[in-house]
Amino acid sequence: MMEKIDSHKVFVEPFHVDFTGRIFMGVLGNHLLNAAGNHSSRRGWGIGALNETRHTWVLSRLSVEMTEMPRQNEHIEIRTWVESVMKLFTNRNFSIHRADGTPLGYARSVWAMIDIETRRPCDLLSLYNGDILNYVVSEEENVCPIEGHGRFRFRDPELVRTIDVRYSDIDINRHVNSIKYMEHILDLFSCEELERGLHRLEIAYKAESRMGDTLSFFVQRGEGGETDVEVKRNGEDTVCQARVIFNE
Amino acid sequence: MMEKIDSHKVFVEPFHVDFTGRIFMGVLGNHLLNAAGNHSSRRGWGIGALNETRHTWVLSRLSVEMTEMPRQNEHIEIRTWVESVMKLFTNRNFSIHRADGTPLGYARSVWAMIDIETRRPCDLLSLYNGDILNYVVSEEENVCPIEGHGRFRFRDPELVRTIDVRYSDIDINRHVNSIKYMEHILDLFSCEELERGLHRLEIAYKAESRMGDTLSFFVQRGEGGETDVEVKRNGEDTVCQARVIFNE
After folding, report:
1. Nearest residue on chain A to B12, judged by CA atoms?
2. Are the C-beta atoms of A24 and B188 separated by less than 8 Å?
3. A167 to B37: CB separation less than 8 angstroms, yes or no
4. Binary contact (B19, A171; C-beta < 8 A)
5. ipTM of the shown complex
6. What is the pLDDT along chain A (248 residues), one digit of tens a residue?
7. Longest Cα pair distance anywhere in chain A, in angstroms?
8. Is B45 helix (H, G, I), strand (E, B) or coil?
9. Cross-chain residue pair A172–B33, CB shorter than 8 Å
10. Alpha-carbon dihedral angle through residues B8, B10, B16, B20, given to the nearest 10 degrees
11. Which CATH superfamily is domain A6-135 in?
12. Chain B interface, mutation test: which of A8, A11, A19, most B Cβ atoms within 10 Å?
């Protein structure tokens, strides 16, 4: 049987870093999603195979916590594995390493599988006769030493920006791409905060938005240095919620 | 001596395509810039080497014309070479191919070299004792069958959008990244046009913009199906000009 943990090598391209020379979180997030996609595909339950049965993976939560952000021209390695599988969700973890193996950070993610037609969740335990269970790597076998996903409690957050969804936001499914929310959220912060560098980004995806929708960004500063952001579609439904923590 | 033409292999990633499944022009443009950077670096006149002498390359013009845009999960090849070198500018061409070698499109670009301190142009013919001249591939040796860069004539174009420069627009030089202008320009068009797909994008970079600047986008529809866009900084200086032509 195939190894349970995949290794995905990435080069940090010149134009993929921010003004401090560190990789954009959106670019890193995209690499994590690619690593996840490859890991699933190589084992037969990637988007391509699922499309044939009219199912697809949907990202529900992503939390990335970095000791250090990779820098321009670095070669990095992303390792990814399935930590656990429940009926409706699977937890997938990541570790991000320098070329010499030093860990730079970790990520946790939660995924559901949905029926493309009905958009309703499917039973992961019966996916290809439970094949995914063969690849579970428990917390004891491979630790992911960052906190799990927190809960958001918004009390009267401040509306700081409203944008129209545009062409470059939209992916092949005609929804705003998960990564684009991260970019728009980080665009809300000051140069001083961004200069310190991102320590942790946690994001919960709640609903889809499409071309023509309006996205409103509400910000709430926390007491522990964290900033919570809620994104609403057309002034009503919550599309996603995020927590951003910069380095001290 | 090293070959004159480089080959740069690229995989069209899942999240790097637009709602039609074709690669975003910004992503393709980024691959072209990487191919150019690698070609220069491998021959000793890349950004890294130039930095030591306090010089850097500056992109002045880029024109990309595609018969067909690469699609999701395609493996493509970008070939690049120096077509000519003058005192203050060099012309670099590109061809974009499917994995089987079929050409999908071509690009032309113009670059200057500047002194990092004075921001003034330098004499390319004396760069490393004229070494760049050893790599010129004439139009007769390797044809680039697309039109050269045109001239822009704006007569009372319409202001259609104004944005503030934000974190995700800025690169390590603290300027708006060349690719980001392309993305903002293409975001001005309608779904109907974007659905037809891009045939040609021509862009002329005139000045830099920074965090905190405001960018205004002025649009002028031409009689031959082309749309010209002028981008101004803080309502005054022209930052870049572009011509966009969609497939019929």
Report:
1. A34
2. no
3. no
4. yes
5. 0.95
6. 689 999 999 999 999 999 999 999 999 999 999 999 999 999 988 877 777 778 899 999 999 999 999 999 999 999 999 999 999 999 999 999 999 999 999 999 999 999 989 989 999 998 888 889 999 998 888 999 999 999 999 999 999 999 999 999 999 999 999 999 999 999 999 999 999 999 999 999 999 999 999 999 999 999 999 999 999 999 999 999 999 999 99
7. 52
8. coil
9. no
10. 100
11. Hotdog Thioesterase (3.10.129.10)
12. A19
Cβ contact B194–A167 (<8 Å): yes
Strands (E), chain B: 6-11, 55-66, 75-85, 90-98, 103-115, 158-164, 198-205, 214-221, 226-233, 237-246
CA dihedral B229, B231, B237, B238 (to 10 degrees): -50
Q: In A, which residues are within 8 Å of B47 by CB distance?
A: 14
* Domain B158-246, second-level architecture: Roll (3.10)
Tokens 């790597």 correspond to what residue? Answer: A137
Residues in A closer than 8 angstroms to B21, CB to CB, are 172
> Looking at beta carbons, which residues of chain A come within 8 Å of B166?
187
The three-class DSSP label of residue B71 is strand
The minimum CA-CA distance between A77 and chain B, rounded to whole Å, is 17
Domain span(s) for CATH 3.10.129.10 in chain B: 6-135, 158-246
- A183 CB neighbours in chain B (<8 A) are 168
B168·A183 Cβ contact <8 A: yes
Q: How far apart are CA A14 and CA B30, in angstroms?
A: 10
> Are A33 and B15 an interchain contact pair (Cβ–Cβ within 8 Å)?
yes
